Queue: 2 jobs
Job 1
Amino acid sequence: MTWRAQAPSNLALIKYMGKTDASNQPLNTSLSWTMSNLISEVVLTESAQTQWRPLDPVHGTQSMSLSETGRNKFLKHFDFLCRQWGVEGSYEIASRNNFPSDCGLASSASSFAALTLATYKLACERGSKWLDLNQNQLAALSRQGSGSSCRSFFAPWAIWDEQGARAIELPVKEIIHHVVVVSRDKKGVSSSQAHQRVQASPLLKGRAERAHERLHLLLNAFEDSDWRSAYEVVWGEFWDMHVLFETSSPPFGYMTARSLAVLEWCRAYWDQHDDGPLVTMDAGPNVHVLFRPDQLEIIAKLKGHFGDMVL
Ligand code: DP6
């Protein structure tokens, strides 16, 4: 008997950075685009002991690997859900992404959302409680495993604040996402560690207000179809987060010379054409670029310049 679920990844334009407690309550509101083509899948099977293994990879991707910390975090969340829903016994947890896991696309959001959904299916059959949870309640539980996963329950846009995550209706319905992969190295500081380490930055004071202000500016920009303002807000937002990293004590960071070269290309494109992509970076060196469907020519130019690095 197996229990299977899939969930998409998401990319924050207003970032979740900093927590107010150990259950991943965010310091500030965040807003994300759900990348419905980037999927994680989790399969649970009854087994002699509870353990994780990679599922056979989807054609064209490598088998998923998890660090020991990553694996423990995943198993801990499964254990938490089983206790929550009264599920007894031990299970093998197998998972995979349909996208390369070493390319700077956060797989933790989609993996934890898929794990929560698969465990919910298991609990509905095997748990000791009668369950009838909605997406918001499932997202709230998933958040406790990995914060950003709660936004993966809603599409195409999700907003997450102290009341939880939910869908938000915006006039932008279609976005083409690419990531310029400047490095495939494992990162030295995980995003979970980054949330803790930014506590030491003097600039964390006022961070929630800044993120809130940007959220409003961004929502207005989308309402007004003002793509340039959206670009400027999203640009300022990821820099704000990276400055928190660099002003922490001790400072840390992800930006490399190659990241800067991509950022510079995007900024120059905007300066010369008064148009371009929305640009953002997570806790990693790779650069995410978001295009409107009518910007295919710019995508071709980006690919012409950065070649195979553009995924
Ligand atoms: C930079 O959700 O990975 O991607 O709650 O500790 O699992 P934990 O952190 P995580 O943090 C994601 C941080 C980010 C910004 C974002 O996705 O909003």
Job 2
Amino acid sequence: MRLLIVGAGYVGITIGVVLSETHHVTLLDVDKSRVDMINQGICPIHEEGLPDLLKSAVSNEKMRAILPNNSIGQQDVILICVGTPSNTDGSVNLSYIMNSIDLIFQKINELLSDYMIIGIKSTVPPGTTRTLILNRISELGINPGSIGVIFNPEFLREGRALYDAQKPDRIVIGAADKKAADIVQKMYETSLTHQTKFVKMSIESAELCKYVSNSFLATKISFANEMANIVENVSNADIEEIMLGVGLDSRIAPSFLASGAGYGGSCFPKDIDGLIHIAENDYKIEVPILRAIKSVNSFRPDKLVNMLLKANQNISGKKIAVLGLAYKPGTDDTRESPSLKVIKLLLDLNAEVWVHDPLALKMKLNSEFSSMIKISDNLEACLKDACACILVTAWNIYEQTGLDTLTKFMKDKIFIDGRRIFSRSEIPDNLIYYTIGRKWQ
Ligand code: UDX
Ligand code: UDX
């Protein structure tokens, strides 16, 4: 099949690479540098395993990237994968989606053969796909039998994007008609080597399915964090032991029960805000659970800084090391990273903040305080003479380095482990070590 993917971000590139196994993929993006990189076989995002596959897809002419003003040619399936960020009031900003749909309909005569599918993969509020695409088709007087319309959410995780795209637990297809849903199923089946469950539903159910999945995962995390707050008051209790006992109940499942610095990234915070806004503003209903998930999460960075202040009241003018800037290990993405809030709180307390991240040099930190901190990929330089350290992202390198070495050149031995990566037996005697979900020493 000939596939056009609009938006060469995490989702667009990853899905494009996977589908280029058996299809011809064109990635369309407004960012010229991104388009140039892809056409040179260079992957513009950090994702394990992706660079090699992208390089060979481009060199085998199974994948190419273009700008909006380039000609495209006839397509069988178009998937829109541009971002849907939050507006300041929490509502979903659909402007990139609308630009993409405008572009497709401007070029419709060039793109359309006998039958073509237009679908959205980006997370959008229920009703968006029908309003923006199906209604447009009828307004323009296009034969509705010539275009199938789908909403096909993507559940991949950054850092594991290739694995998730190649071996998805399920593929959800929301479609207005059976023909479109069957073609999209076939499109995936021919590229995936792994047997996957296909779940077909209405377009609106599929749109909500993405919000509900992300909300449930965020619920598990905030729930685990709230339980950790309780556990910290009980001598000899440990949240990790407790969640192991809890998660092995097959009705609960063990994943996404890790307490820590809270969730960040480009999806959970924006999707929780989006669903709250949809419920409260569009449907006028209260969503106390979603509000609680958000509230519990928003206090996680404060908690880490409060732990530090319990160990040392006065950090003004002192060097504090922050380990990890990415919102989770395995990615160079800092969007909504809990680390950013930790850094801001430390700067408000006049601390001298040094930040380490193994992918530091690749990071784009568009933050108001970029110039006020020192970011480095040199772990030793970051920790040397520090008066305390807060670990926010659970990069493997921290666990591999070990507490002894990490704290060796610190001035004051205070270590706040915001991701619980060390066990009790690894804590050196001379270290003040506070962590999540275990009574502080
Ligand atoms: C995706 C989804 O689309 C989002 O709705 C979902 O919630 C998370 O995953 P992501 O792949 O992370 O977003 O987006 P991002 O990495 O920000 O990339 C978006 C790409 O679209 C960028 O390369 C950007 O240049 C491009 N873009 C944006 C366009 O090509 N056209 C536009 O009008 C806007
Ligand atoms: C998430 C969803 O998992 C994915 O299905 C969807 O398509 C996009 O949003 P992503 O944001 O890439 O994926 O990463 P994820 O692994 O879900 O982690 C999100 C955040 O939750 C990270 O900050 C992570 O550190 C945090 N987290 C995750 C926890 O704090 N505890 C956990 O147990 C799991």
